[in-house]
Amino acid sequence: MKKLAAGNWKMNGSLAALTQVDALIAAEPAPECEMLLCPPATLIAPMTARAKGSRLWVGAQDCHAKAAGAHTGDLSAAMLVDAGASHVILGHSERRADHGESSELVRQKAEAALAAGLIAIVCIGETEAERDAGETLAVIGGQLDASVPAAATAANLVVAYEPVWAIGTGRTPTLAQIAEVHRFLRDRLGQNIGAEAAGVRLLYGGSVKPSNAAEIFALPDVDGALVGGASLKADDFAAIVAALSAA
Ligand code: PEP
């Protein structure tokens, strides 16, 4: 299994920001792992062109569950492939919160992504209230069960554990808490998709930065990271990728 460092630019970036891609590629930080950036949909094609010949993969942040039709403003998985995407983030907590996305919808989107040949990065995570109530494993177990398609394999599925309260806040769970959740996810995924679960990349996401990346990547069952804010700066993302590559 190759580990994966994935960056989520969210609703940030412009053509001018693609100089960050040039800098990241020039830094060549990823000899031992895979490196992915998911910019806004407007930048998928130009970023793909910019990354040609490098080891940088380009992905999307969402797709529609349907293949085509009257869905104004939406993008199908096949359209993302057409633009150059190899991966798609699905069920990010910001989409679950801002757009009311349920795990059932996330699974339908993941099925559409797999059918189009994309690798689905399915995000799950508890809120702070759920953690405080001792419900973390029940919540993420339920999200995992309902979000992951039955046809998922190690080759087409990545799971990102992202505690909602750690995203963009500078706060992270303890290393023991991350390790507990990732061990649980590996086992639970095994109940869903069998032996394939052993090869599915389990990413941690939530305030990963150059200063904490190495200790997180040293944990068992942490196979990479989904990085928001720190992926916008080539130097920071390159440092995180280098830490993963060395792990
Ligand atoms: C994210 O939104 O997926 C994320 C992990 O953000 P940040 O790294 O900024 O916490």
Plain-language structure description:
The chain is of the alpha/beta class and 247 residues long. It has a single domain, classed as Alpha-Beta Barrel (TIM Barrel). It is 41% helix and 17% strand. The chain is built from ten helices and eight strands. It has helices at residues 19-27, 44-51, 77-83, 93-98, 103-116, 128-132, 136-147, 175-193, 210-217, 234-246; strands at residues 3-8, 33-38, 56-60, 87-90, 119-124, 157-161, 201-205, 224-227. It has an eight-stranded parallel beta barrel with strand order 1-2-3-4-5-6-7-8, surrounded by six helices. Helix 9 (210-217) links the parallel strand 7 (201-205) and strand 8 (224-227). Helix 7 (136-147) packs parallel to helix 8 (175-193). It is globular. The mean pLDDT is 96.
Poorly predicted parts? none
Strand content: 15-25%
Instruction: Count helical runs.
Output: 10
Which structural class do the helices and strands define?
alpha/beta
Supply the number of structural domains.
1
CATH C-level class: Alpha Beta
Euclidean distance between termini CA atoms: 13 Å
* CATH architecture identity: Alpha-Beta Barrel
Q: Return Rg in Å.
A: 17 Å
Helix content: 40-55%
The residue-averaged pLDDT reads 96
Bound ligand species: phosphoenolpyruvate
Give the beta-strand count: 8
Summarize the structure.
The chain has 247 residues and is α/β, with parallel strands linked by helices. It has helices at 19-27, 44-51, 77-83, 93-98, 103-116, 128-132, 136-147, 175-193, 210-217, 234-246; strands spanning 3-8, 33-38, 56-60, 87-90, 119-124, 157-161, 201-205, 224-227. Helix 1 (19-27) packs parallel to helix 10 (234-246) and helix 9 runs parallel beside helix 10.
